[in-house]
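We were asked to recover a plausible sequence for a given structure. The inputs and outputs are reproduced exactly as logged, with field labels preserved.

PROBLEM: sequence recovery
POSITIONS: 866
GIVEN STRUCTURE:
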């Protein structure tokens, strides 16, 4: 695979040039449409570096011109010259993942592997070193759980014996003289997602901060910090760790006062950071750095506040006051800051500033060069319209208007009216309006982000309980018992399968399920209890879906989600889109849309990403064949015994038991949410997959076979903390075991056997009841069953089934020729005769028992396990 122009363009679009330049410590100032700053490539005293944010290009107008070196270009050219990088190295430095065939990508993976192994060695050293442990305790970090959570380590100088020195030098772990770079340091890994990409060291018994050579890559504590829109920014990693010790997880460290990197800015953008609290050292350098960083963050639309602690730095405050005292002091400073901050907005107001000029006491206004724009209210933006009530003030005169900012014609009309009146070029007024549009759209996007529920934070105790649950040898039994605690009694097989369908949303090939049963049997209850046990951010319930409903969701609204449709009759029109999402893992719709700027019709493409797990319920057993082959069809227990179990539970919930039960239910739900959040999205390998035998007589088994393999996969995935793992092609994978095959066979053999029967379970059950009714009638009337006739009323009275259900099932029995009808003339009573009895229960022939499969696997491979 080649590095294409499209690939390079995508990398450049993700990296703002001005942001990158500022992350390298170069201050930029807005001048008109461009930024200016001191050129880093020559001794520049008068700003000669020009950055065009619209074109994403730079150039030097000073001594760089004509010196034979490149004095202009894009973000890649700037980085290559500044840090002497090759083209591919610059791509990687900007966060690109190069195609696997390129040597540089192999080098990148190898680097991560070496760093990961080194972090493990250093962590083991820490747990064995009293010197390193005493140092951490002296800095206030006494809890070994903290050491383990962040993989803190200690370099004892023995790394050379663990791997080849040349590879360690290439990564930077060893110096050119053969000495460990971090020898005698407590170490902390820096992460990019799950990958170790950097390392920080702090000398034990000395001073100095140590990093790997080259630009800083990776962040500390980004996973926890990403869950908050407000970030505390500290000067060092130990300062950030001090905040975490005091209970503040929304913290990120810089790498010194000049250590705001492109990784930080990318993090702020991707996690939607709205507010940063700067808590750097209280010395003069820290205060000056806070001002500089605040200016940089302001360019990215981030609100900043600076807090000064009553100590040299956060770590000193922790060691002096302890975690509780630290927390109390910092929360007091936050409260004081909020009380002192002026209110800039009314209930529905907003404010936007051009340059550094704040408008005069008007929360709905922004100003520039003597032009003051006032909005009477915040508009609600959508894809087609952006109406505003806008008033422009200039030299004591007022120019009000109401216009759609998305309409080029409306904007031009406003510009033509006001530009001559305010002594401004039409282009200048257009820039004002475009700026306003961008700010309003950002406001809309932030509101959407705030509306999304954030995953709950887990306490150490909650995490321990959830992990114990996932490691339980009787995990399946515990799931069934917990669903009974929530009110769903009996139905052990169906409960387990529904839970697995929910968990499968995390995989690339999730399962789906349709619950078929008559009204009042508990279909909705099973769907609801499954939804309760699924983390709320991963579940979506719909009462009804229109044909095009799914196409107009946010692109990732259904990605790795569980979708529950309460009653399938409300979604039949959306069958096609559901089937497509189940099969292709995405939906694509091309629709004609009117362009609000030009008024012309254009084709717009909407793409909704999967994969998605589905659970539907219905009273109609006649499911579209195309849908049925994509999901498990389950039937609920409609027996009197199950009804009695439900009655017993309902009585208990109205007695004193409910006082204890409600508390248990709340704790059960929370524990399942935490447990499912702990499941890592790792792929599953079924080592014995090629030895599984499956019937192939019917065409539909092509999909049934795939569903059976996916069922084994999700069972192993759920038990990932009980299954062995391997590293294959640089990635961790879960190895399924024969016990997963056993569970899948137990759950699915009856469901899969249904695919080989002509009539479905409801029909077979009714035939059995008709046969029982006729047997009694035969004994009473002394006539053979074959000669007896009956009416729908007879069957209704014998079975207790409702009229509409009897009527629908009789029509299907006639179609399958299990009963014959003698139609009466002139609306008389029809009489029926039994032609054939119910099908015999058929086992799913062809599937091996677990013992047979294991014997075949061992015999073929010569292995004893996996």
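RECOVERED SEQUENCE:
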């Amino acid at each position: 695979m080649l590095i294409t122009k499209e690939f390079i363009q995508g990398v450049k679009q993700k990296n703002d040039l001005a942001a990158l330049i500022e992350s390298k410590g170069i201050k930029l100032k807005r001048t008109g449409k461009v930024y200016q700053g001191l050129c880093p490539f020559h001794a520049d005293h008068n700003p000669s570096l020009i950055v065009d944010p619209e074109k994403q290009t730079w150039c030097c107008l000073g001594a760089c011109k004509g010196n034979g070196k490149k004095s202009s270009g894009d973000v890649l050219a700037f980085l290559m010259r500044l840090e002497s990088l090759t083209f591919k190295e610059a791509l990687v430095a900007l966060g690109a993942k190069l195609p696997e065939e390129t040597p540089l990508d192999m080098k990148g993976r190898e680097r991560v592997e070496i760093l990961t192994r080194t972090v493990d060695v250093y962590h083991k050293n820490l747990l064995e070193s009293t010197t390193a442990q005493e140092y951490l305790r002296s800095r206030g970090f006494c809890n070994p759980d903290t050491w383990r959570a962040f993989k803190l380590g200690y370099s004892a100088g023995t790394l050379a014996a663990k791997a080849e020195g040349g590879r360690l030098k290439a990564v930077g772990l060893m110096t050119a003289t053969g000495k460990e770079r971090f020898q005698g340091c407590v170490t902390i890994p820096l992460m990019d997602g799950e990958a170790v990409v950097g390392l920080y060291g702090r000398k034990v018994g000395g001073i100095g901060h140590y990093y790997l050579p080259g630009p800083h890559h990776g962040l500390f504590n980004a996973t926890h910090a990403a869950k908050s829109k407000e970030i505390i920014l500290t000067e060092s990693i130990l300062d950030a760790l001090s905040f975490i010790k005091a209970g503040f997880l929304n913290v990120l460290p810089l790498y010194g006062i000049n250590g705001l990197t492109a990784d930080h800015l990318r993090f702020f953008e991707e996690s939607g950071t709205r507010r940063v609290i700067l808590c750097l050292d209280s010395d003069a350098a820290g205060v000056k750095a806070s001002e500089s960083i605040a200016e940089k963050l302001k360019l990215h639309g981030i609100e900043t506040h600076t807090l000064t602690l009553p100590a040299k730095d956060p770590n000193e405050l922790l060691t002096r006051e302890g975690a509780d005292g630290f927390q109390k002091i910092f929360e007091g400073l936050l409260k004081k800051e909020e009380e002192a901050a002026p209110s800039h907005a009314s209930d529905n107001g907003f404010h936007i500033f051009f340059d550094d000029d704040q408008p005069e006491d008007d929360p709905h206004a922004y100003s520039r060069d003597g032009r003051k724009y006032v909005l009477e209210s915040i508009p609600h933006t959508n894809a087609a319209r952006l109406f505003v009530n806008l008033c422009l003030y200039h030299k004591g005169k007022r120019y009000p208007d109401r216009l759609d900012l998305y309409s080029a014609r409306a904007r031009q009309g406003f510009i033509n009216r006001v530009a001559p009146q305010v002594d401004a070029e039409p282009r200048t007024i257009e820039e004002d309006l475009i700026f306003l549009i961008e700010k309003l759209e950002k406001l809309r996007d932030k509101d959407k982000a705030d509306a999304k529920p954030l995953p709950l934070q887990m306490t150490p105790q909650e995490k321990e309980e959830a992990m114990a649950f996932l490691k339980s040898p009787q995990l399946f039994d515990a799931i069934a018992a917990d669903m009974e605690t929530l009110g769903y009694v009996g139905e052990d097989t169906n409960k387990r399968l529904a839970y697995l369908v929910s968990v499968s949303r995390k995989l690339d090939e999730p399962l789906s399920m349709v619950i078929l049963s008559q009204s009042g049997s508990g279909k909705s209850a099973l769907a609801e209890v499954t939804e309760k046990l699924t983390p709320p951010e991963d579940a979506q319930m719909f009462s009804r879906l229109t044909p095009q409903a799914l196409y107009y969701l946010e692109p990732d609204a259904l990605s790795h989600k569980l979708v529950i449709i309460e009653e399938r009759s409300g979604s039949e029109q959306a069958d096609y889109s559901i089937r497509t999402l189940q099969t292709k893992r995405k939906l694509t719709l091309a629709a004609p849309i009117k362009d609000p700027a030009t008024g012309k019709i254009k084709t717009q493409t909407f793409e909704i990403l999967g994969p998605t797990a589905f659970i539907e319920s219905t009273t109609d057993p006649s499911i579209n064949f195309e849908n049925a082959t994509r999901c498990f069809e389950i039937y609920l227990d409609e027996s009197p015994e199950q009804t009695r179990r439900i009655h017993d539970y309902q009585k208990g919930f109205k007695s004193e038991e409910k006082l204890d039960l409600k508390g248990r239910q709340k704790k059960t739900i929370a524990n399942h949410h935490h447990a499912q959040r702990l499941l890592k999205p790792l792929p599953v390998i079924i080592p014995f997959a090629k030895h599984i035998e499956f019937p192939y007589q019917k065409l539909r088994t092509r999909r049934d076979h795939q569903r059976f393999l996916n069922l084994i996969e999700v069972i192993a995935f759920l038990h990932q903390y009980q299954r062995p793992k391997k590293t294959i092609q640089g990635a961790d994978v879960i190895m399924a075991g024969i016990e997963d095959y056993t569970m899948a066979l137990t759950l699915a053999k009856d469901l899969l056997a249904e695919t080989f029967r002509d009539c479905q379970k409801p029909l077979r059950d009714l035939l059995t009841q008709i046969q029982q009714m006729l047997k009694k009638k035969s004994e009473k009337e002394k006539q053979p069953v074959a000669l007896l006739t009956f009416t729908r009323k007879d069957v209704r009275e014998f079975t207790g089934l409702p009229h509409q259900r009897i009527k629908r099932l009789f029509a299907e029995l006639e179609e399958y020729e299990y009963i014959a009808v003698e139609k009466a003339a002139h609306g008389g009573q029809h009489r029926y005769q039994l032609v054939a009895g119910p099908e015999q229960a058929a086992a799913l022939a062809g599937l091996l028992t677990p013992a047979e499969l294991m014997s075949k696997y061992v015999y073929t491979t010569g292995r004893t396990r996996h």
